[in-house]
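Render this sequence as a predicted structure.
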Amino acid sequence: MNKDLESIRGQGRRLPGAKSTRAGAARASLVGWLIVLLGALLVGWWALRPVATEAAPAALPPTPEPVPAALENPEATRVASGLGVEGPRPLPAYPKELDDPTRFRGVGRIEAHLTVATGVTAPTRWTLVLEPAPFKIGAEHARARRIEVEGQTTLVADDVALGSYSVRAEAGDFECKPFDLELRKPELVDIVFPLELFERGTLTGRVLDELGLPVQGMAVFALARTGSAARETRTDDAGNFAFERLPDGDWKIRVATRENPLASAEDVTFAAPSLHLREFTVPRSGSIEVQVVDELGVGLVGTLVEAIGLRSGPLSVTTGPDGFAKLGPAIAGEVRLFASDERAGEAETTLQFDPAAQPAVPVILKLRR
């Protein structure tokens, strides 16, 4: 057998099933190096990875020592604050002069100088109007006056009761903005001020119904935004209205009624000579036709008829020939009609008025004693 093995080796052939130990050793060495390299990479990544560190908590500011409350007013009283902690509550401190009952006693002196715009001739006659200033301290002591001035542009009045006043000048088509002043002791008893006159202008507009038709006889109001000044006018056949000789200022325009206008309200700042407003649109309106008769059915002339309850506002009219009359403009709704005559008596009725379906015959109001 040994001879057979030697014969095979001599011929340079491998034994069946035998492997090369040199090639196996090389492969094992390569795998080992790969493992070492991979391990080195993992170690390097672990060493270089970003490490999230928790931020240190911010230092809290030191708690200040509580400072005991000091009473600035020696007359202050310590009362319960309502929060379970007692604290000082000083008494209200008012200027001493407000408590002096004599500061509006007596009279003062005012000197008013009238001026006009360049190119305008100063009026020869004008009126200085003194009125208590609304919502001003001392207004209850003021005395309303109208002082007529002629032939001069300066007025000196040294007998004006102390108080708070709203002062303005009037002269025909001229007006001026009010000047508020306070006459009081001890220092404000002699006041000099200018009053500039300017021409009054005209504020115009138009009222249409929802069909685009002009509304005749609709009431329109101009209410001063400050003070109590108010104007009222009515639309003409074409639905136009105008406020003549309206003083400059801020005005509230209301259609039909002051409190509940039929059209969207508008606030304007008016300055002479003129201003034309946008068109106002109101619901469709019509007229309520009535006839007032006595107990015998005879029409009565000159009888007062009133319509109450409509959103378009109260209406009143006196009857004409045969007792007929029209009340309008009136919008849809429930309305109470009332007629009265000193000799014939009274009558009233309630109806639902619809301007789109007005009755062909008038409403009869028969008076009874």
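Summary. The chain has two helices and 24 strands. The chain has three domains: 99-198, 201-282, 285-366.
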